[in-house]
Design a protein that fits this description.
Jelly Rolls, mainly beta, single chain, 30 strands, seven-stranded antiparallel sheet, 5% helix, Immunoglobulin-like
Length: 490
């Protein structure tokens, strides 16, 4: 859990780095070594067998010597290159049909349509051990339909899986499952897997994504703002703003019991007001030696802690236990109990807390034990620590919503919406667009709730499941882009 700490020859008081919004396209078509896919065979005699090295990805139901068996397939692409908080602008899955008689054989509609679902997997699975009996769970949310085949070796190219991939980036990537919509025999789709001998037939995923601006804050003693709050009666009015530790503990000091909390605040002025925080990650670095309070301890029980949002002003040079600022438990973030004396807590998700700061005022975070009983302790380096790589770090990525989502009043594409306000359905009409375009429904923070690709002049969209509020219709086409605001009111 401990990271290697490098010694810097150049001392610095703070780090502030930015990255501009950019669009990147990632094409993945892995081979047998890097690919992750497998068949799940539901025939009674096969349900416990692993088919992680098969050259086929099939969705079928068939009879085998009189017994019926259903086959599904799972595949997962490595999306680790896509930064958290990214917006997936497009994701296209290509699957290549096997038309010969090897293995399961070609596509078949012998007893009816072989339409399939591509569904997002929601639990972990291992390519070398997954079977029908231990197959992972899936969700039908944003599932994508594959139409019925025409020929025995039809390729399914550039299937739109944008919303599925966005969900993977947001919620965790475990890949997709391909299965028949109606699992009746005799129906089959059969594609090449990453183990196929022909590299051009292996599954391919093309993802285009946008990354938003990020700011990384890691201030030193001069720019940093943090302090200990010592609750021992003899220390309750003492300011500890220059200490090299940030601790959450309860301990005895020559008999009397004292509880310690810590406060820290990062300068968020580089994040525009009104932005949506797409991700915020706080990193705290453990002090394992016996200086000061010493390392983490669970001597009397769990040292789980809370990170809470501070809701009132405090001064680093004067703050004490007795005048400590107020806090809110809304969106508080738990820190798990430590394992070692000097565990680092890296990339703790404080997105919601940081969004609240941007919306309601930034007074920083407080770290405190969940159970303030002695003897329990977490102890981290503060911005006053001599090792700059141990200073607290906050990385914030954001979408400047007000700058990016505007109700354009011009007549570039001739977009009109009706009715407005909306109850259940809204009709979007395009006057000047030529060819296919993307129609996006976004909430007031810029999150894409629906995406429709069409060439229709008029499109009717179901918004009955959305809550009351302000939303946007955004049109993106080769001839231009335009956004319009609408209100749902019931």
């Amino acid at each position: 859990m401990k990271i290697t700490k490098l010694i810097l020859s150049l001392f610095y008081s703070s780090i502030l780095s930015f990255s501009c919004m950019s669009q990147t396209t990632l094409v993945l078509q892995p081979d047998a070594t890097d690919g992750k896919d497998a068949l799940l065979h539901g025939l009674n005699s096969q349900v416990g067998l692993n088919y992680g090295s098969n050259n086929q990805l099939s969705a079928n139901t068939w009879t085998y010597n009189g017994s019926v068996g259903t086959v599904r397939s799972v595949l997962e692409f490595d999306l680790s290159a896509i930064p958290s908080g990214s917006t997936i602008t497009s994701a296209e899955l290509s699957l290549y049909g096997i038309g010969d008689n090897s293995g399961f054989g070609g596509h078949s509609t012998l007893s009816g349509t072989n339409e399939c679902w591509v569904q997002r997997i929601t639990s972990a699975w291992d390519e070398l051990t997954v079977t029908w009996n231990n197959q992972p769970s899936v969700t039908t949310v944003n599932q994508v339909g594959l139409i019925s085949s025409v020929g025995v070796d039809d390729d399914y190219l550039d299937v739109d899986v944008t919303m599925l991939v966005q969900d993977m980036v947001n919620l965790g990537n475990y890949g997709v499952m391909i299965r028949l919509q109606t699992e009746d025999h005799y129906r089959r789709l059969n594609f090449a897997s990453s183990d196929h001998s022909n590299p051009s037939m292996r599954p391919k995923l093309k993802v285009t994504y946008e990354t938003y601006p990020c700011v990384t804050l890691r201030p030193g003693s001069e720019a940093g703002k943090d302090a200990l709050l010592h609750g021992l009666s003899s220390e309750a009015n003492t300011n500890f703003s220059s200490n090299n530790q940030l601790s959450a503990n309860t301990w005895t000091y020559n008999g009397p019991v004292g509880t310690v909390r810590s406060v820290l605040e990062f300068d968020l002025s580089g994040v525009p007001a009104g932005s949506t925080i797409t991700s915020a990650e706080l990193s705290l670095y453990g002090i394992g030696d016996n200086s000061g309070f010493g390392g983490h301890s669970t001597l009397s029980g769990s040292n789980e802690a809370w990170i809470q949002r501070v809701t009132s002003v405090w001064d680093e040079a004067t703050v004490t236990w007795n005048n400590q600022p107020s806090v809110s438990v809304v969106n508080q973030v738990p820190l798990a109990a430590s394992v070692g004396l000097d565990d680092d807590y890296i990339d703790v998700d404080v997105t919601a807390l940081t969004q609240d700061m941007l919306n309601s005022g930034n007074f920083g975070y407080m770290i405190r034990l969940q159970t303030e009983d002695y003897y329990r302790r977490l102890n981290f380096a503060s911005s006053d620590h001599t090792d700059p790589l141990m200073h607290p770090k906050l990385k914030v990525c954001y979408q400047d919503t007000l700058a990016e989502i505007q109700d354009t009043e011009g007549d570039l594409l001739g977009v009109s919406l009706f009715p407005n306000p909306v109850v259940e359905w809204i009709t979007v009409e395009i006057e000047h667009v030529i060819g296919r375009y993307d129609l996006l429904i976004q909430d007031g923070q810029g999150k894409v709730l629906k995406k429709i690709t069409t060439s229709n002049i008029q499109t009717k969209v179901d918004v009955s499941k959305f809550e009351n509020g302000v939303y946007f219709v955004s049109i993106k086409s080769k001839t231009g882009s335009e956004s319009k605001r609408f209100v749902i009111s019931r």
